[in-house]
């Protein structure tokens, strides 16, 4: 009796495992988190792909180490190009959309006030240059070094772009700021809204449209594209991709997908 | 009952972890007491016989079967030797009941017969009523009986007991002595009992092997070793109290011993040189004179003493007498009614006789002190 | 396969495979003396003090098909071992080794030595002694080793993330899924998963404790 129950349990554990493995694996930049469900709705295939989000750098590293992804949706051109150079992808990177950045802060904070009070849109200035210097002292009169959340520039393209924005706009050297580095762009947003930072620079796609429904009350200020290098999202199919991956690849370049991107915080490919 | 040819012969030598140079023999049905002070190596010897300890060099032979031999080299495991070992702390299997503990040693018995035979062994050791109990619910004496039953159930070639009675109280111990004395008459195997209790030795053993610092000092039939130890040191290790220094001289026919201020004639001992010797007087050889009727006799050897100590121990009186002539002390026991009859009292004068059969002379050790008590 | 079942599966296989290994090593450490024993013990308990990132790093590097060892393994198994459920099991076995060895070692050491000797003298071979005399006396230690291993595996995060890579249905265990949901600001899912893991762990530990106490009383 006991051995039968054990055998049953064992078989359940092994069988259910094998059933799940037919859907193709996709590695996607964290900036795509909120737009992905919308894309999948439009994709309407019976086998929905399994997706893993992360920073583009981390994901490409895993792919180099033979992670079983079939399609890699990066937030830049560099990482997919590296894969192509190593012979891991079958073709050159194909751009599928462009990213945008935004200032974000919880409602009621000093950065939120600045975002609300700014006149130009998208933003071209930095809160650290205004005459009132809102970050010089806090309400108790103690000097305060602003703490900003951004994605880690070492391996997240949005982090690289955020740094470019700050260098372009902040007259004081960036060393007056403290950074909390998110492991990927989504975690940067999490830190930005945690209350432990003063706010952050995050992908616009994570704080616009559908995304806002899940977030606490925040204030968002889209940053002008002139302040940073283009955040060109490009993708590659990894060696021996299945037909499902190939069709997903094609879908992402289609009109339907492109219009979803445009309506959810991304910019059109030139 | 001592058999003529030894069933168990043991020769062991080693340097580490403790020094050993031991040789002993034991016949079938004979109970040999392996005794000596703590740390002398007795338990190591017993474990070596059982195969639990491997000595550097030695030979162990039991009933024509070699258990250990340097020449081949041969070393049989405990399983291969068929020994019964009763451990000091019983070593019963705590998760088995009494019956299963005994059955555990019966791998050589067909399965169907095991329960029946085990119950027989338990009956022999008076534990058949408690066969379903777990060891933790038994008293010390009961556990010891189960341990013995288990050792016997193995139908061993040799029975080894490692201070089996040290952990039980005196009353239980007396009972267990009687039971063991009864059971052993039915066993035809050599038995080795490790103990440091001389009373136990005297009550149970046929022969005795005294070990000290890993060396065999003396071995042989119990009464012989006890009454005629080779040296004063051995006498002390055996627990003897009345040890003195005397002068021995041999007149050709008999031996003459000057001790305690008197002269005693003993049978000649050719091994002894004339001169200073150690003298042992057994307590049983000390006879009190009746105050009113002095006894006559050839080997009277009267000694005048003063009673310096008289302690009541149960029905006996433990006496210490100081010899008038030499101020040395004699120790022995008498039953209380005898003491009363002879009007024994502290500081009272008392004359005693020393029976020469109970006097034993030994060569002196280099470091013998003059007086013993 | 849902993250919950994946976590359970990982905990199950780790426990089933590791308990016999822990038993064996624990017994050797309890009973045998040999040169280098201290090194073996240090090696066994190393995962306790190393951060998961160190272990994850070494596992990733050694199992990667880009090097000789990992490559050989990959051709043997037909697929690279990294980023797979099997890789998680392997890392779990290493990470949890001290949790399986230590209770077993203590349990064996706590058995009265003379009962083992009494067994040998009574005619039981070393194997029979192990099965009939030693094991029954240390089953509580074995249960403890199994429980600790199971519970600890359920909570594994760092090594799983590094070696497994958060692949849905394969390596996205419950702890990873919770992490993932929080990043997606899906606090509802995160909350459900966290609560279920907490309740399950509590329940499992409670059941084991009660079972242990009850059998102990009956002995």
Q: Give the H and E element order of chain C.
A: HHHHHHHHHHHH
Q: Sketch the major β-sheet of chain C.
A: none
Q: Strand order within the widest sheet of chain B?
A: 7-8-9-3-10-11
C-alpha-based Rg of chain C, rounded: 20 Å
Instruction: Tell me the number of strands of chain B.
Output: 21
* Number of alpha- plus pi-helical segments of chain C: 12
> What is the percent of helical residues of chain B?
10-25%
Calculate Rg of chain B over CA atoms.
24 Å
Question: Which residue ranges of chain C are poorly predicted, with pLDDT under 50 across at least 5 consecutive positions?
Answer: none
What are the low-pLDDT stretches of chain B, counting only 5+ consecutive residues below 50?
none
Percent of residues in helices of chain C: over 70%
The percent range for strand residues of chain B is 25-35%
In brief:
The complex is a heterotrimer of chains A (270), B (373) and C (219). Chain B is an alpha+beta fold.
How is this structure best described in words?
The complex is a heterotrimer of chains A (270), B (373) and C (219). Chain A is built from nine helices and ten strands. Chain A has helices spanning 2-19, 36-43, 56-64, 78-85, 110-117, 157-169, 185-192, 243-252, 255-262; strands at residues 25-29, 50-54, 71-73, 94-99, 101-106, 147-151, 178-182, 199-203, 218-222, 231-237. Chain A is globular and about 55 Å long. Residues 15-20 and 137-142 of chain A have low confidence and may be disordered. With 373 residues, chain B is an alpha+beta fold. Helix content of chain B is 23%, strand content 34%. Chain B has helices at residues 42-50, 78-81, 98-103, 111-124, 140-153, 170-184, 198-204, 222-227, 232-237, 336-341; strands spanning 8-14, 20-26, 31-35, 57-62, 65-69, 74-75, 83-86, 158-162, 191-195, 207-212, 215-221, 243-250, 254-259, 262-267, 275-281, 286-288, 302-313, 316-323, 329-335, 349-354, 359-362. Chain B has a six-stranded mixed sheet with strand order 7-8-9-3-10-11, with helices on both faces. A five-stranded antiparallel sheet of chain B has the order 2-1-4-5-6, with helices on one face. In chain B, strands 14-13-12-15-21 form a five-stranded antiparallel sheet. The longest helix of chain B has 15 residues, at 170-184. The mean pLDDT of chain B is 87. Chain C has 219 residues and is an all-alpha fold. Chain C contains twelve helices and no strands. Chain C has helices spanning 3-31, 37-49, 52-63, 68-77, 85-95, 97-110, 113-121, 126-137, 139-154, 158-164, 174-183, 187-218. The longest helix of chain C is centred in the last third of the chain and has 32 residues, at 187-218. The radius of gyration of chain C is 20 Å and the shape is globular. Chains in contact: A-C, B-C. The interface between A and C is medium-sized, with 30 and 30 residues.
